[in-house]
């Protein structure tokens, strides 16, 4: 498997913890303020009053809830706990305000608050939903060196004598009944209960695995060269964060299978979300989104290329990383019920034929944003006549340049349509002409392969780097292609064309100005290439 860094999120103020809203899959952060984000990770609402300097956030499931909850608890630096609602984006109430100094505090998924009261050195558990409280008296030999954690409603108490590295780890049920008592020689940096296994990470990069039911250690593994600061897991993998900002992935036998450095500072939290996404928080308050990709390149890429009918010449281009990024992008569009163009089966239509057969490449900007119009090929429309309303300004000027290139006469569109009608100017109708171009070796490639319906330029940011790499790849694979770059949008890709001839002039959608040497109708795109391509259709 592989980890792919998708993007960074840098909150406007210091972030100490985060959660993902289970109902909307959106980000919520706490720290110097409570902040709600939209699906594009833009801040949409924030609070500072009452809950500035918050340290932790935890979603809870209230009694009798069958589905995911919108309720979460925030713990402040004063160890006050506030109940909030992510649906209404409101702070509901302060549900816990300590009267004594708190040494350590944690909140469970079912709304229980467990803490160490410094005045009594008692372990206390408050059920905020049932309004009950339990206390357990602790030994005072550990002085103030207590830490509490909660996993699956089990309470874990870590205690350490002053100036000693050895730890005592006790595990309790939700009723504070002790079920395990473990003595560890070295200090434990991070502790997590996974099933009956207690995993404890060390300063030297080791992890110890204990059987919580017998209080015995049965395995240990060296995971990192640096201190392990956090541990997360899913059904298949374990994810370790370390003090150098690295994420290390192991299998269930703790064999390292992947590693990625995402931050300069240590990793403070990792959170696995379904659909193979991992969120990471740094000590500096930066958040990274990482994609988890199956390492079986043949299976992943092969399935992707077969599904989209992509020619095998592109096998080296479509790595598992690119495939995963594209699939997640399209999946997100569908999850958010976004209508986009073209239809899925036409997104990679330009790549269905061999690179080696290509003689000319026309770079377009993006698919038509109107519904059911784009075919996946740049400029192409499926209409049987040049005189229909579907023939837009760009296509009309393309028709004018074709006419001028072959007849040396400059006419307006109506005159050309009359010549087509009488048979004086023989050119295939649009629905056949573009197919003829492709059959002769013309690559009709847009530099953004999708667009949201009714929203031009909406997907350019996503496709930009992918298409730059694609153009590089094509120009290396086949150095004999002539590239027709019409307008500034396509000409910005010129530097990524590493071989071949380039012909540049204005875009056909621009207003015609024949006094401008770069005007579209002054262009030599068709004249310079008509020896290899019959632009009017049919065999050359």
From TrEMBL:
Its EC number is 3.2.2.27. The keyword Hydrolase applies. It holds the Pfam family UDG. GO terms for molecular function: uracil DNA N-glycosylase activity. Gene3D superfamilies: Uracil-DNA glycosylase-like domain, YVTN repeat-like/Quinoprotein amine dehydrogenase. Keywords: DNA damage, DNA repair, Hydrolase. It is an enzyme of class 3 (hydrolase). The keyword DNA damage applies. It catalyses: Hydrolyzes single-stranded DNA or mismatched double-stranded DNA and polynucleotides, releasing free uracil. One of its GO terms (biological process) is base-excision repair, AP site formation via deaminated base removal. It comes from the Bacteria. CDD domains: UDG-F1-like. Transmembrane segments: none annotated. Residues 357-499 form the Uracil-DNA glycosylase-like domain. Excises uracil residues from the DNA which can arise as a result of misincorporation of dUMP residues by DNA polymerase or due to deamination of cytosine. This is uracil-DNA glycosylase. The lineage of its organism: Bacteria, Fusobacteriati, Fusobacteriota, Fusobacteriia, Fusobacteriales.
